[in-house]
Amino acid sequence: MLTLLDLSAAFDSVDHNTLLQRLRTSCGLGGKVIDWFMSYLSNRYLSNRKQQVRTTTSSSVPSAVLSGVPRGLVLGPILFLLYTADPLQLVKRHHLMPHAYADDTHIYGYCQPSDAGSLI
To answer: How far is CA 76 from the centre of its chain?
Structure first.
């Protein structure tokens, strides 16, 4: 059995506070390393982003975007994988194998044909 997951706008959905907490608890990072990540996430690539809704007759007030990791940089996919590492551990606890790269995840399992029902 193979399940393919492709999360749309996945890089934009990364909550900075949750990411930093996962880096602390799951990866054991702290101190100056966390300070560096906080600085990175608040730098010019991310901190100046704003969003608003526009229609033909009106528009909302621009608001700051407080989530997401940059695309096109090496660190973006790595941060996304660290952000999703805990759910991947959950997949493993169910005796399935995940293979993830950035926002594309393959989850697979194998069994004898007679056990296919239990795998599903």
So the answer is: 9
